[in-house]
Write a structure and sequence with these properties.
Number of domains: 2
Number of strands: 11
CATH topology of the largest domain: Jelly Rolls
Number of helices: 0
CATH superfamily of the largest domain: Jelly Rolls
Largest sheet: 4 strands, antiparallel
Strand order of the largest sheet: 3-10-5-8
Order of helices and strands: EEEEEEEEEEE
CATH class of the largest domain: Mainly Beta
Strand content: over 45%
Structural class: mainly beta
C-alpha cells in the first residue's frame, strides 16, 4: 500500500487601515506535503454543546489524533477546544474563525465546549503516524 499524503496550506493576513500598512501583511505557509503510513482520518460536523468540561470530539477510526483543523460555524459565540473532557484549554475559536494545528502525542481524546449556546463546528482530524516531509 502506498503512503498517504497530508497537505497543509495556510495564510494569515493583517490589514490595519489606521496604521498605513498597505497592502496587508501576510504570513503564508505551504503548500507543504507530508507522506505517512497512516490512512485514517475523521471529518465531520459536530454540534458542540455548552456542557461543563466539554464534550468529546468524535474521532471515528482515529486512535492517535495528529494534524487537525476546526471551523466555528457560529456568527456570535466561541468554542473552546480542550485536550480532554474537563482537561486543559488548547484553543479558543471565536465566532467564524478556524484553527489548524497538530495535537501533542499525549492527547488522545480532545473535547470541545460552546460558550453560550450550542454551535456547529466543522472539523478534520488525521491519525498521527509515521509522517515525513515530501521533498
Amino acid at each position: 500500500m502506498s503512503n498517504s499524503t497530508v497537505t497543509v496550506t495556510a495564510n494569515l493576513q493583517f490589514l490595519d487601515p489606521d496604521s498605513g500598512i498597505s497592502p496587508s501583511r501576510g504570513l503564508p505557509y505551504g503548500p507543504a506535503s507530508f507522506a505517512g503510513t497512516e490512512h485514517t482520518y475523521m471529518q465531520g460536523v459536530m454540534t458542540v454543546p455548552t456542557t461543563a468540561g466539554g464534550t468529546a470530539i468524535p474521532l471515528g477510526p482515529v486512535s492517535a489524533p495528529g494534524d487537525s483543523m476546526f471551523i466555528n460555524q457560529d456568527s456570535v459565540n466561541f468554542i473552546t477546544i480542550y485536550d480532554a473532557v474537563s482537561g486543559n484549554k488548547i484553543s479558543q475559536l471565536d465566532a467564524g474563525k478556524c484553527a489548524m494545528f497538530p495535537f501533542d502525542p499525549s492527547i488522545t481524546a480532545p473535547a470541545a465546549k460552546a460558550d453560550t449556546a450550542s454551535i456547529q463546528m466543522s472539523y478534520m482530524i488525521i491519525n498521527r503516524g509515521d509522517v515525513s516531509p515530501v521533498p
